[in-house]
Design brief:
This protein is 41% helix and 13% strand. It has 379 residues and is an alpha/beta fold. It has a domain of 197 residues: Alpha-Beta Barrel (TIM Barrel), CATH 3.20.20.30. Helix 1 packs parallel to helix 11 and helix 6 packs parallel to helix 7. It starts with a strand and ends in a 35-residue tail after the last helix. The C terminus is likely disordered. One of its GO terms (molecular function) is oxidoreductase activity, acting on paired donors, with incorporation or reduction of molecular oxygen. One of its GO terms (cellular component) is cytosol. It holds the Pfam family Bac_luciferase. Keywords: Monooxygenase, Oxidoreductase.
């Protein structure tokens, strides 16, 4: 299995102290964590994108440019590029620039986003978010793979002989599709033979399982090579302690604050599926939900348990930004040293190895089974 560290760059005031991290410090920490992730052997580092709320990821390609210059080997990604909101011309230009700066270490994940306030903020009709997503995706694919593009759609002006610069580093980089609540995203991915990443953050396992199963069925029905039907999975937060009981108690204030913040926004689990936490207590989230909170042994066991359901070969994790910086780093170190080897000993994959011909050309992960020492040097 491969591992990714994702930062959506949330930055609300601390729910207990009321203190807020200065934006310059919070953004600097994103880059520092990318460097640490590379040092610890994570395969990928992803930056989210949001344009409303207490979030600092409104310019993810700027952040990824800084990360590209601060790192040498780790794969760079997005989580997600909110393509429904964006001009595909600018997306192609910005992300190809990151691809060039990183010398071919970029793959992206696209989606419609999980923040409703972004649409009125940018003057767009939220009822057309899926129309925007499909049309913008179709155009982005063309712009990345071809020059002198002539194109006409429903929601933007006609293009005549358009070529975006810079071009991608070594041909079009791979596009993943983020999946959270709708069949539309997985159907779009399956239609084009692309991989998916299940959000797996707020809901019961079975809600995500339905979408993953639907994706695999359609992917094969479209006749694509199952070798490239990769599935990734997110998680409902990462926190480690010596025992699961200690982890639950230490994480409780942060989890309860997250639930309270969603309730203040009017997000009710019954009416806001995919936007509200379905689990009221941290105990429920740990026992029945996607939260990776516990001892290293319990967290490794949970990832493997979810793998039995999802068959995913990429695990994305996020560390809570409200933890003290030293504790954030400690959680990441323990995860890399005590959880990752246990999972990789059980789950084989050729994702991002030399056998994965569609990988970002500037990046090669280890072999199919790191436990056997079958590791190729990274680019």
């Amino acid at each position: 299995m491969r591992f990714q560290l994702l930062d959506i760059v949330f930055n609300p005031p601390h729910p207990v102290t009321g203190e807020a991290v200065p934006p310059s410090d919070r953004l600097a920490r994103v880059v520092e964590h990318a460097v640490l992730a590379e040092e610890l052997g994570f395969d990928s580092f992803a930056v989210g994108e949001r344009h409303a709320g207490d979030v600092l990821s409104s310019a993810p390609t700027v952040i990824l440019g800084a990360v590209a210059q601060a790192t040498e080997r780790i794969l760079l990604s997005t989580g997600v590029t909110v393509l429904s909101l964006l001009d595909p011309i600018r997306v192609a230009e910005d992300l190809a620039t990151v691809d060039q700066l990183s010398r071919g270490r970029l793959e992206i994940t696209i989606g419609k986003g999980n923040e409703d306030l972004q649409y009125p903020l940018l003057g767009l009709d939220i009822t057309k978010q899926y129309e925007y997503l499909e049309e913008n995706y179709e155009l982005l694919r063309l712009l990345l793979s071809e020059e002198d593009v002539t194109w006409e759609g429903r929601h933007r002006h006609r293009l005549e002989n358009a070529t975006t610069l810079p071009r991608p580093f070594a041909g079009p980089f791979r596009i993943w599709h983020g999946s959270a609540t709708s069949k539309f995203a997985v159907e779009l991915a399956a239609k084009h033979g692309d991989p998916i990443i299940s959000a797996n953050a707020l809901q019961p396992r079975e809600n995500y399982q339905v979408l993953i199963d639907h994706y695999r069925e359609l992917y094969l029905a479209h006749g694509f090579d199952p070798q490239y039907g990769y599935v990734g999975s997110g998680s409902g937060g990462l926190f480690l302690a010596d025992t699961t009981e200690e982890a639950v108690e230490q994480y409780r204030p942060l989890y309860e604050a997250q639930v309270a913040a969603m309730r203040r926004r009017g997000y009710d689990p019954a009416t806001h599926v995919g936007k509200a936490l379905a689990f009221e207590t941290v105990e429920e989230a740990v026992e029945r939900g996607p939260a990776l909170v516990g001892s290293p042994e319990r967290v490794a066991e949970k990832i493997l348990d979810y793998h039995e359901s999802f068959g995913h070969v990429l695990q994305s994790v996020s560390v809570n930004h409200l933890l003290p910086p030293t504790q954030q780093e400690d959680v990441l170190r323990r995860f890399a040293e005590e959880v990752v080897p246990v999972v990789q000993a059980e789950v084989r994959t050729d994702l991002w190895t030399a056998a994965d011909e569609r990988r970002a050309k500037g990046f090669t992960a280890g072999g199919t089974n790191p436990a056997e020492g079958d590791a190729a040097p990274r680019a």
